[in-house]
Amino acid sequence: MALPDALDLKVMQALQVDGRAxxxxxxxxxxxSDKTVARRFxxxxxxxxxxxxxxxxxxxLGRPGWIVRLRCTPDAAEPLAxxxxxxxxxxxxxxxxxxxxxxxxxxxxSQQERDELLLGRLPRTPxxxxxxxxCVLNPFYGxxxxxxxxxxxxxxxxxxxLRPGLEEPPAGPVALDAVDEALIGVLRRDGRAPMAxxxxxxxxxxxxxxxxxxxxRRTGVLYFDAEYDHEPLGHDVGAMxxxxxxxxxxxxxxxxxxxxxxVRFAAAVSGRxxxxxxxxxxxxxxxxxxxxxxxxxxxxxxDAETMLILRQVKxxxxxPRR
Length: 322
Description:
By secondary structure, the chain is α+β, with helices and mostly antiparallel strands. It contains 11 helices and 10 strands. The strands form 2 sheets. An 8-stranded antiparallel barrel has the order 2-4-3-10-7-9-8-5. The protein has a two-stranded antiparallel sheet with strand order 1-6.
């Protein structure tokens, strides 16, 4: 397996900027041929599992997200993580340090689904010792802002040339109908699904599909994210940091975290630890330096709990063969 080189990283970041940008458009910005871009994309998909997926920003639909921590007996952690990974409303499921905790991001589609899972099913699951659910109050980084945006493979001018010209999303929740849901369902499996497949799966004409796709992106409901293995990029130490921050310093601390190159997700959450972040480092020593030098320097941080991710069971999608 060939490790990603400088051009591979440019292609990856280009597709993070616009997941549906054509190979011709990307090639024009990078100064290579579209066949070269296509070959690199195929190789990245084969070697590091690189995929572009259509995702929904649940806050635009009036659905708050949750981060759930489940403490369980060591024998139950992996089966529980696998069962959660098979659900369509979960993502970023990790087996944490010690093998006795599972952390999971959840996006229930309704209050009933939320209550059924958090108040009913999970607390009654055998060998689950405790359930701690944290509502995502305000995201600072993540979602449409993927970690690949921080690798600086592209110049500012190249990034701007690839950025889709989307307007500021409207205020208030957006309503979806059956056609929107069908379109999102296809893109969730393959964000670069060709127009012919989108037409076939939704039963709509090309003009209708293009109009619906444009509306979903313009309203901020639909965005495109990249899924891939971090290890080949040299960032194989992942951790979740649960920070307790003074309320008056919370916004500034969240914005500071969002600017750190190590941070792939940061959000204000409910609970005693009111700021959570997921970080990616090259080594344990780099993580230690990040905690002491960067986290330690943020004003208002009173406490920090560090949980190493032993294994990422699910990122955006779940593939039992990986």
